[in-house]
Amino acid sequence: MEPMVFYVFMIVPFFVVAGLVFYGYSHIFFFLFSYLRPLSAERRKILEKFPYYRKLSLKQKHVFENRVQRFISLKEFIPKQMDEVTREMKVLISASAVQLTFGLPEVQLADFDKILIYPKKYFSRINRRYHTGEVNPRGFIVIAWDAFIEGYNNPTDGQNVGLHEMAHALSLENIKSNYEENIFDKEAYENWKKVTEDEFKKNKRGLKSFLRNYAFHDKEEFFPVCIEYFFERPEEFKEERPELYEALCRLLNQDPLKKTDRILKEAAIY
Ligand SMILES: [Zn+2]
Fold first, then answer.
1. What is the structure's pLDDT at 127?
2. Distance 189 CA to ligand 1 centre (A)
3. 84 CA to centre of ligand 1 in angstroms
4. Ligand 1 geometric centre to CA of 164 (Å)
5. CA 81–ligand 1 middle distance (angstroms)
6. How far is the CA of 41 from the centre of ligand 1 (A)?
């Protein structure tokens, strides 16, 4: 090989790759790699069970699949109190993260690289009660599989642990300083914070809310509980608190009450 040709075809790409890895942009490889390795037929078959995915157009389904594929390849799934994490667990748990963020430029929840899965609700020795899930700012998301399935099997009760935990992770990711910080549109986020304050004031004055009490447990719980109602009881949500509902539509760039066409048109998809 001519020295110049060798230089261009071997050395330059090597330094580009090394530079990207060094500066923490290794996710770009997963991003490119996913085009070489689309979601397998088995995984796609599992996705067909996922209600949100089923309602998408063909083009949107394709984007959704790619996002799920990348999410799976970026995470380490760890079985707890069981032997292995099944393919179904990986696909459906990843799909709940993609559902929540589908209107946004791709979000990988980069700071949460481990997903721990328990087969059933698990006992926490820290606060001595059973848990269905939790998000640890040190970088992991925990999900009880039976509770996760229950969440999607009861699609209108306003309880969905998958969406709830992903919402915790998303709001933490938004304020962490890494390549995914400031995920939300700045104005939409400021507006969301304002309507949240108003809602807490109403709650303090004793005004009854359609949201379950846990939403007002503290400021961290409010967003995840709203997310559960947003996807599971959107009609009621919009009727009871139109300004809060609209603020969430803006924040997530999707509206569960409207046709999903809007999602793809307005989302910044590579
Ligand atoms: Zn919570």
1. 72
2. 19
3. 26
4. 6
5. 22
6. 34
- Cβ–Cβ < 8 Å for 199, 241: yes
The residue ranges of every structural domain in the chain are 1-36, 41-258
Q: 3-class SS at 54?
A: helix
* Element (DSSP H or E) covering residue 124: strand 122-124
For residue range 107-136, list pLDDT tens digits in order.
999 999 999 999 999 988 777 888 999 999
Instruction: State in Å: Cα 132 to ligand 1 middle.
Output: 10
Q: How many degrees, rounded to 5, is the angle at CA 25 between CA 24 and CA 27? A: 120
Kindly list the distances between the CA atom of residue 182 and the CA atoms of 42, 168, 186, 220, in Å, as whole numbers in the listed order: 35, 15, 7, 17
Name the pTM for this structure: 0.85
Q: Which CATH class is domain 41-258?
A: mainly alpha
Residues 6+ apart with CB under 8 A from 248: 192, 226, 227, 230
Query: pLDDT tens digits for 57-90?
Result: 999 999 999 999 999 999 999 999 999 999 999 9
Average pLDDT over the chain, rounded to an integer? 88
Retrieve residue 95's tokens: 């799909």
**109: three-class secondary structure by DSSP:** coil
User: Residues 157-175: pLDDT tens digits?
Assistant: 999 999 999 999 999 999 8
Determine the distance separating the centroid of ligand 1 and the alpha carbon of 103, expressed in angstroms: 22
By the CB criterion, residues less than 5 angstroms from ion ligand 1 are: 221, 224
